[in-house]
TrEMBL record:
<dbReference type="InterPro" id="IPR017451">
    <property type="entry name" value="F-box-assoc_interact_dom"/>
</dbReference>
<dbReference type="InterPro" id="IPR050796">
    <property type="entry name" value="SCF_F-box_component"/>
</dbReference>
<dbReference type="InterPro" id="IPR036047">
    <property type="entry name" value="F-box-like_dom_sf"/>
</dbReference>
<dbReference type="InterPro" id="IPR001810">
    <property type="entry name" value="F-box_dom"/>
</dbReference>
<dbReference type="Pfam" id="PF08268">
    <property type="entry name" value="FBA_3"/>
</dbReference>
<dbReference type="InterPro" id="IPR013187">
    <property type="entry name" value="F-box-assoc_dom_typ3"/>
</dbReference>
<feature type="domain" description="F-box">
    <location>
        <begin position="5"/>
        <end position="54"/>
    </location>
</feature>
<protein>
    <submittedName>
        <fullName>F-box protein At4g09190</fullName>
    </submittedName>
</protein>
């Protein structure tokens, strides 16, 4: 900046860091590609922590991904005065060079790409390759992509490992805060395999190993898992419990769910503000008049408290609550069936569909939505 005499004045680094930490991820993404000084600043782990604490209170970031490897950074600003409740979309490069480095030379690409889950800014992308002429058997190609810093590498799968639609594998990427390591879990035929991820890209298919300390055969996993405090959490069918996998210790344990009446059914798990939430509905005669009841697990990890009820609810919407703000009066939700984002007002019971600016409506209907925490670490390691 300049003073009254036109002389250039350099602002203190602490003041610049304070101002920059309030900017949305999309703005930092654009500026960091041309400003070396900004690059150096946001590499500082202290800035990363500051940015995440500030950004989460002002803006919710979601990743939208299409099967043809088109990705968008979706931002909803909580204090936006726009009465139309807009979500602003910024296109990302989700097709970096590592996608052309697959070793499936004996397979045929099916052009089926799926964003499985996201952890600390890394997105796990799964691509299917046919291994027979009828496209019945296939093998997977796995990639970790950080669309913000444009880094990508391949996770090798064992040679000769084939699947079909009746034995479809599930993958989950997680982070162990005590060991500081990322791990990938694969579940197929009730068998758990774990892969230690090396972020330098030096990964080998020999790193896959079997986890045998839990009797999986008596449990059925329901829905998508959620990550919280270094653990992967799944809902279990029939027994109404939560299966937790400690990433650091590689151990399993069971957590209780709220005590429901006979006809209450658990819909899904959520994570907000470092706490675990459960949504449940009344399924007697498909009666949804009671709405979606939201419970939160207390910090003792053994008791639950009912915090809210969402009226006018239909189970087939597959709602996921992303964030609560404005003093708990409003909830931001993703509808995975309707492919949109909604704002729920707890006082009035009204739901407003948010307008996505910058996305073609036809493309939006093909999207998968993922919760996404932008990570600006290792910006100097661009591909």
């Amino acid at each position: 900046m300049t003073d009254d005499d036109g002389r250039v004045v350099e602002l203190p680094t602490e003041l610049v860091r304070e101002v920059v930490s309030w900017l949305p991820a999309s703005t930092l993404l654009r500026c960091s590609r041309s400003l070396a000084s900004l690059n150096r600043m946001i590499l500082d782990p202290h800035f990363v922590n500051l940015f995440q604490s500030r950004n989460s209170t002002l803006c919710t970031t979601i990743l939208g991904f299409c099967c043809d490897k088109v990705g968008f950074l979706l931002e909803y600003h909580h204090n936006d005065n726009d009465k139309k409740h807009s979500v602003f979309a910024h296109e990302l490069d989700m097709d970096p060079p590592c996608f052309s480095q697959d070793n499936n030379t004996n397979s045929t690409a099916l052009n089926v790409h799926e964003a499985v889950n996201s952890c600390n800014g890394w997105v796990l992308i799964r691509s299917k390759y046919s291994v027979d002429e009828f496209d019945v058997l296939y093998t997977d190609s796995l990639h970790l992509v950080n669309p913000v810093i444009r880094r990508c590498f391949t996770i090798p799968c064992e040679t000769g490992l084939w699947f079909d639609d009746n034995h479809k594998p599930e993958y989950v990427l997680g982070y162990g805060p005590k060991t500081g390591r990322y791990k990938l879990v694969r579940i197929v035929n009730r068998v758990f395999d774990v892969f230690d991820v090396a972020l330098d890209g030096n990964n080998s298919e020999n790193s896959w190993r079997r986890i045998n300390d839990f009797d999986y055969n008596q449990y059925d996993l329901v829905g998508d898992p959620v990550m919280l405090n270094g653990g992967m959490h799944w809902l279990l069918a029939k027994v109404k419990s939560i299966l937790r996998f400690d990433i650091d210790k590689e151990k399993f344990d069971l957590l209780p769910t709220p005590l429901f009446t006979k006809h209450m059914c658990i819909d899904s798990l959520y994570v907000m503000g470092g706490l675990l939430y459960i949504g449940a509905y009344n399924y007697k005669f498909m009666d949804f008049s009671l709405g979606l009841v939201i419970w939160v697990m207390k910090e003792d990890s053994s008791t639950w408290s009912c915090v809210s009820v969402i009226r006018d609810f239909c189970h087939f919407e597959h709602l996921e609550i992303v964030q609560v703000f404005d003093g708990g009066k409003k909830m931001l939700m993703m509808s995975h069936s309707k492919k949109n984002l909604q704002l729920y007002d707890r006082e009035t019971g009204e739901r407003t569909t948010l307008i996505m600016r910058g996305i073609n409506p036809k493309m939006r209907k093909r999207m998968t939505f993922l919760r996404f925490d932008p990570s600006f670490l290792s910006l100097n390691n661009k591909i």
